[in-house]
Write a structure and sequence with these properties.
Structural class: mainly alpha
Mean pLDDT: 85
Distance between the termini: 67 Å
Low-confidence stretches: 185-190
Largest sheet: none
Strand content: under 5%
Length: 190
């Protein structure tokens, strides 16, 4: 062995030390977190994060009797991060609620135009596909990602959906539902 070279402890010793720290201090740290959170689920998540830090920094974890105070310090910082995140999420939710309440709702499917009626008569799968193209302005590659299918499958389905939509637009008003039901049963891209 050369001098000045630090060797990591054997993996089993590292794991055993962590398991000993966890078994000894789990309940105390969980109690610390439960008294400072409103949810048992949050406390459990924060406990996991606290011991993740302990695992990663196991060489920095002091021996007893300083182990528990060190873990409380880690838990305190993990809890502070959690609260900051909650504050950001709450502020964003409040901001979005304000913005969305000022915006009139958009319900293009509720219009009573021939196009809207024909669109509503389409099967849900066709409406979603055509909506991704027209309203979300996605290309076939992006739609493939959204739907979890190949670009080729998107092209084929889009072609068929456009054909069905065109057929509904040209069908007499009384026959639109019948045309849509017939097309829905007969098409093979489900």
């Amino acid at each position: 062995m050369s001098e000045g070279v630090v060797h990591d402890p054997p993996p089993n010793a590292h794991r055993e030390r962590f398991e000993q720290v966890f078994a000894t201090h789990r309940e105390a740290v969980l109690g610390y977190l439960r008294r400072r959170t409103d949810s048992g689920h949050d406390a459990a998540d924060l406990l996991a994060d606290t011991f993740l830090v302990a695992w990663r920094r196991l060489d920095d974890v002091p021996l007893d009797p300083q182990t528990r105070p060190w873990l409380y310090g880690v838990a305190r910082r993990v809890l502070a991060n959690h609260r900051r995140g909650e504050g950001r999420r709450h502020a964003l939710a409040t901001k979005l609620r304000g913005e969305l309440s000022d915006t009139p709702p958009v319900h293009p499917l509720q219009e009573d135009t021939p196009t809207a009626r024909a669109f509503r008569a389409l099967p849900e799968q066709d409406r979603e596909l055509l909506s991704l193209v027209a309203w979300e302005e996605l290309d076939t590659g992006q739609i493939a990602t959204v739907l979890g299918i190949s670009r080729n499958a998107v092209r084929i389905r889009l072609h068929r959906a456009r054909k069905r939509f065109a057929k509904l637009l040209t069908a007499p008003l009384a026959n639109r539902t019948v045309v849509a039901l017939t097309e829905e049963v007969s098409h093979e891209d489900a």
